[in-house]
Amino acid sequence: RNYYGGNWASFSFSGLLSWIKENKQKADISDEYEDWRKLILENEEVISLSKKDKTIQHVEDFCFGDQDSAEDVEEAGALPKLPVFGASGAEGAAQDSEKECPPVEGALPGAESWEPGKAAGTEPASATEGNDTEVTSEKDGSQNTALGESSLELEKTEAVPTEVSAREPKKVTYCQIVREGRRFNIDLVSKLLYSRGLLIDLLIKSNVSRYAEFKNATRILAFREGKVEQVPCSRADVFNSRQLTMVEKRMLMKFLTFCLDYEQHPDEYQDYQSSTFAQFLSTRKLTPSLQHFILHSIAMVSETDCSTLEGLQATKKFLQCLGRYGNTPFLFPLYGQGEIPQCFCRLCAVFGGIYCLRHPVQCLVVDKESGRCKAIVDHFGQRISANYFIVEDSYLSETVCTNVCYRQISRAVLITDQSVLNTDSEQQVSILTVPPVDVGKPAVCVIELCSSTMTCMKDTYLVHLTCPSTKTAREDLEPVVQKLFNLDTEKETENEALEKPRVLWAVYFNMRDSSGIDRNSYVGLPSNVYVCSGPDPALGNDCAVKQAEAVFQEMFPTEEFCPPPPNPEDIIYDEDEITPEETGFSNSPETKPESSSEESSSKGTTAVKKEDNEN
Questions:
Q1: Taking a C-beta distance cutoff of 8 angstroms, is the pair 63, 174 a contact?
Q2: Which residues contact 203 (CB under 8 A, 6 or more apart)?
Q3: Confidence grade of residue 379 (pLDDT, cut at 50, 70, 90)
Q4: How far apart are CA 422 and CA 169, in angstroms?
Q5: Strands (DSSP E) along 389-496, which ranges?
Q6: What is the pLDDT of residue 574?
């Protein structure tokens, strides 16, 4: 690929159109170097890798405007010789965005969990996590969050025009979307970061967060009786809510307080451990509306498949994440989820890691005697040796994956002209769980992003829909899209255009879910070859973090996973190893066959041994 992140990537609008075109064609990679088999010795055998990405299927895109009028329109600021793909990490796009939206350093907001007796985010936090804390609010009431000096940065957002009514959205044409295509950073996978999740902790610990900026999810929504409404989360939200009666407010507070320390009261739930969480809620003297809020918007679990214990755990996790960075448990990375893998790439590169885009690999080379993988042969006939090999599941051939049974994820991405729930502020980041439309269907997670997340142009919203697949993505998700949005741009009956956001453009696709597959399911895989899955369907990122740590610990059981990097002033370079060529760019054509970085640490001082990484 010529972009970072695989199926975790983010694209500009033109980049996504190119990605759609490629996945509709599904062309094989041609052999540029046909004599690569000459590099294989007699005592070696090969495991061929897949030449076709089969992780994306049933791609369907729709334009609900005049597409023909945009044929000759070019993306603003686009360069004539840029690669076909437009990933969000492209430096040109990032630099343009930074000029218009310069980052402002900010400290970590209050790091407190939700407490029954205190409104989250309503007063300064008393507990800190190693940093001075400061809560910064925007005029629109939302918070941009940055994980401190070791953590996040705050981002200034565009001023929200107050003269335009939320009920009268500006008309946005397809031509404008194409012209402003670099304003879009469209994720292939839709996720949020739990404020006390494993990924946030890892970003802070490893200092990777210095490369990222985040914004709070500002509201949790629910879809009930055909209407979208906001769910009260914090104590302040609960008691300020107009949709709950006073009795319901007391019921909800009592239940949420119980969930925070449910382990201390096993007698309350042990009789229902074999029941579903929905059945347990029906025994807790909660009204139907409260049961709906807790099940679909707080615990965010299945009505039919989730056990009581799993539901209590999910509710507690939600409550514990409240108040650390804002009034909801979630953060979203500015410029899209695709920024996260690139952040790790940047820090790795600082200490000698090399990333090669547009560099396909033909096969793994395996020693017949030991059964271990010795090397790979790349697309250009170069043999590269190593001790460990990490491969993403999609690169393995059908021969290796004969016994593997994959699940699928249904995805949809929409560009709309207004929010699913209009308020005084247009700059909202919302998460909504839509209950199953029919029996046997999964619930659908909807994440709506505003322009201040740097993922879409002004006067538009980017909407992500995700659920486990039962059919094609369009069959799974279009019924939900029809409930929430207006797809008919010509017929406007019963004031539908004013009540529902209008869809300007949409794409549906199915993505392979390779998470949770046992290593033994792969046939003939050498012991020093490790497999990483693609994105999983969960809302958070815990699965990926656990998997990365497990692979790392198998390879290096005595090493710390993602330790804090040394400060630049603590790095001492070995003078004997530094050559004149390494102080700048060398014109010498000679390169060493392999590159490596070795690090040794003693008493807080790190010596980095450098070799020629020019190749």
A1: yes
A2: 147, 151, 209, 212, 343
A3: confident
A4: 10
A5: 389-392, 407-416, 430-434, 444-449, 461-468
A6: 65
Pair of tokens at residue 73? 């329109």
Q: What pLDDT does residue 169 have?
A: 66
pLDDT tens digits, residue range 151-190?
344 343 333 443 444 456 678 899 999 999 999 999 999 9
Q: What is the pLDDT of residue 155?
A: 41
- The closest alpha carbon to 284, from 305, 315, 243, belongs to 315
User: What is the rounded CA–CA span in Å between residue 377 and residue 384?
Assistant: 6
pLDDT exceeds 80 at position 403: yes
Kindly state the tokens that stand for 447: 């994440």
Distance from the Cα of residue 46 to its chain's centroid: 34
The upper half-sphere exposure of residue 191, i.e. CA atoms within 13 Å in the direction of its Cβ, equals: 27
What H or E segment, with its residue span, contains residue 59?
Answer: strand 56-63
CA separation, residue 125 to residues 120, 129, 148, 253 (Å): 9, 11, 15, 21
How many beta carbons lie within 10 A of that of residue 391, not counting itself? 19
Question: CA distances (Å), 446 to each of 6, 184, 349, in order?
Answer: 22, 18, 35
Confidence (pLDDT) at 241: 81
Helix intervals (H) in 74-132: 91-100
The three-state secondary structure class of 608 is strand
Q: Which residue has the tokens 């979630």?
A: 330
> Tokens 């279009």 label which residue?
478
Lowest pLDDT segment from 285-299, 308-322, 566-580: 566-580
Per CATH, the number for 247-321 is: 1.10.405.10
Please write down the long-range contacts of 515-521, taking CB distance under 8 Å and 24 or more positions apart.
515/543, 515/547, 516/543, 517/393, 517/404, 517/406, 521/401, 521/403, 521/404
Query: Residue 220 is encoded by which pair of tokens?
Result: 């949790």
* CA dist., res. 47 & res. 526, Å (int): 10
Across 67-73, average pLDDT = 63
At residue 324, φ and ψ (nearest 5 deg) are -70, -45
Enumerate residues 6+ apart whose C-beta is below 8 A from 348: 355
Where do the domains of the chain lie?
A: 247-321
Give the pLDDT of residue 566.
Answer: 85
Q: Which helix (H) or strand (E) holds 104?
A: strand 103-104
Tokens representing residue 530 in the block: 């490790």
In angstroms, the CA 5 to CA 10 distance is 8
Report yes or no: 321 and 260 within 8 Å, Cβ to Cβ. Answer: no
Contact 577, 611 (CB under 8 A): yes
